[in-house]
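Prompt: I keep going back and forth on a fold encoding question. Comparing notes only helps if you start from a blank page. Show me how you would write down a chain together with its backbone fold. Please set it down just below, with no commentary around it:
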Amino acid sequence: MKRILIVLGLLALGLGVAQKPKVVIGTGSTGGVFFYYGTALADILNKAGVAEFQPVQTGGSYDNLLLLRDRTNPQANTYYCALTTTDSAYVAFTGEEPRFKARPAKDQRVLFYMYPSFIHLVASEKSGIKVIQDLKGKRVSTGQPGSSTENLALLVLQAAGVKPESFAKRERLPVAEAAKALSEGTLDAFFWVGGVPTGSIVELSQSLGRKGDRIYLVPIDPKSTTAQVALKRFPGLLDTTTVPKSVYNTRTDVPGLNTGNILVCPQSLPQEVVYGMMKAVFENLQTLRSAVAAAKDTSLANTAKLYGRLAIPFHPGAEQYLKEVGAIR
């Protein structure tokens, strides 16, 4: 009888473990902050034990949002969460992005704010590129096809009156490959929308320094037509900012634009799981910040600023936690 009870107990325990939801977290390309942030996040959440979390490498925001929309399967207890820029989440939610026109990603719900992403336009001093218009006749990467980087790069180029057809060669590379190509002299400039600092660009700065060159971030003046067109396109989602010269060893501080980054999960992800995720993250912020420098901006205060500002609703589990800790009413 005792043996039967032990077996039944083990079976019950096995069923309890099996019933834990599987949550896949879409991150980004190797060398970008999304990849490192998502990996560190999954580690923290797995240790909390609220579900089984698995980070996956992707092309970034839009890939992640497509996974959330198309691969989430509550019947199979499998859910896809997405690290995404706020502008990507917005156009996927409204259906303005072509890939979401027929089926907008209406099921996405906000959990928390992660950090701002700078619209980097990276060159070297020896390239002679000083302003966006200097990209004409150069070899330029506009980011991976269909990525948030590419969409924002094309928006910036359009606002500056520069057509990609005017480039000597257009590449569409992830950040690590673009940085390597620029270091090796097969690329003159590249766009990258990512957290500050981005590891691949820090390494590029060091590589150029060893060759007697220096990294150059093309500035975007907040008062320029380029900045104003971009800000008008995404009101409340893009902001002006400045990257200190100490970050990438540029000669001066660099003005430009950034977009926010958020974690979104499907509405169907159980409320208690999302509540547990929020609790685990905000009770282990120091661990996250030690793993990813950009996470210094992950905070209850920054998350609360987004509440009611975005067209995308917050997940009920996130709202429950934020109200419990007094971040929102």
